[in-house]
Specification:
Layout: H1 3-18, H2 23-35, H3 49-55, H4 63-80, H5 88-106, H6 134-149, H7 157-192, E1 199-204, E2 211-218, E3 221-228, E4 239-242, H8 255-264, E5 268-273, E6 276-286, E7 297-302, H9 324-334
Helix pairs in contact: 1-2, 1-6, 1-7, 2-5, 3-8, 4-5, 6-7
Length: 337
């Protein structure tokens, strides 16, 4: 999830955990604990871009990191707030719960998270909710504002932390159900349309959980399309993109390429844009692909340009070309064919 959502949700959990009297202090500790795994952003100061892509949501999002950092935070909080009547065990459970919640939520997005780093580079990604979904983030955002306004002993504080925790997790449950439904539909459609594939994935398009991005294929190439849960027809208008591995021959041994291929989990294609060699990671979607099926992919990395040209590689095309007309079309597509 995005950083602001982690902070707001962490604060609500802190309030829930410690209750009246200690609430606002616990909210600050909860926000800090929820932010702790994202300390990996510092790695971008010295790592090159492909290395940083793998470092993000790597070791600091692992179970080992959670085991190491939880007692450190617990000891720090316990010492800062002396004298108090809170047992160290409670501090420890609190921080472990907050950090574990962060690791769980990040696994629901499409970036991937290394729970077992550094022992295994396997990345987990449930692809069930977009990284910034307002229907998940709104409730803890409103709740944290109210909790900071109310005094520490106000009787309505319990209502607001429940508002900020229960509703988003209820929505997350709906997202998981939507994921199961869309995956079942896509498997049936792939079979009926005779699409050859050895791997596939589905993931929500920006800011919603109704319109889903679908990629299916093999080492030769991938079929890309979109399906709304509100579509009436069991059909997807796929576009085929060859993988073009042969274009990588001149750069096959480069370390940055090896990192990119590992990061993409094999969902990539290669293209030539004029004299520029481009690596596409298909997992992050297409730029307005629901309207323009042959559009560029959001994540495109220039293999033969200076690193500065790739600084915003993950975000490069996420909202490129959006305007009122495009937004209107997007909403219509969400509503179904």
């Amino acid at each position: 999830m995005d950083s602001l959502t982690h902070i707001a949700l962490g604060a609500c959990v802190g309030e829930a955990f410690f209750g009246k009297g200690f609430g606002k202090k616990a909210m600050l500790w909860g926000a800090l604990a929820q932010s702790a795994p994202d300390v990996d952003f510092i790695a971008g100061l010295w790592l090159n871009i492909p290395e940083n892509l793998l470092a993000h949501r790597g070791f600091t999002h692992s179970l080992l990191f959670a085991l190491l950092i939880s007692p450190v935070l617990a000891l720090t909080a316990e010492r800062i707030h002396r004298p108090h009547n809170i047992r160290f065990r409670k501090w420890l459970i609190f921080f472990a719960a907050e950090i574990s919640l962060h690791l769980l939520l990040d696994a629901f997005n499409n970036y991937g998270i290394g729970w077992f780093e550094p022992f295994s580079h396997l990345r987990f990604s449930f692809n069930a909710i977009y990284v910034a979904d307002p229907l998940f983030s709104l409730w803890p955002g409103v709740a944290i504002i109210m909790l900071f306004i109310l005094n520490s002993y106000h009787p309505r504080r319990r209502f607001w932390w429940r508002f900020g925790v229960i509703i988003p997790f209820f929505y997350l449950g709906i997202c998981a159900i939507n994921k199961v439904k869309i995956s079942a539909d896509v498997k049936e459609i792939l079979h009926e349309q005779a699409i050859p594939y050895s791997r596939y994935f589905t993931t929500p398009t920006p800011m919603n959980n109704l319109l889903w991005y679908v990629v299916a294929g093999n080492d030769d190439g991938y079929y890309v399309g979109f399906r709304s849960l509100l579509d009436s027809r069991k059909k997807i208008a796929f576009e085929y993109f060859p993988r073009n591995d042969s274009l990588l021959a001149p750069v096959r041994d480069r370390q940055d390429l090896q990192y990119l291929m590992r990061f993409s989990q094999q969902f990539y294609t290669v293209e030539k844009w004029g004299d520029t060699l481009v690596f596409n990671d298909l997992r992050f979607g297409q730029i307005l692909g629901w309207q323009y099926p042959r559009e560029k992919f959001v994540f495109h990395y220039f293999l033969d340009r200076p690193e500065g040209d790739n600084e915003l590689v993950v975000q490069r095309g996420r909202f490129a070309g959006w305007n009122r007309s495009e937004l209107s079309y997007f909403i219509r597509r969400i509503k179904g064919d």
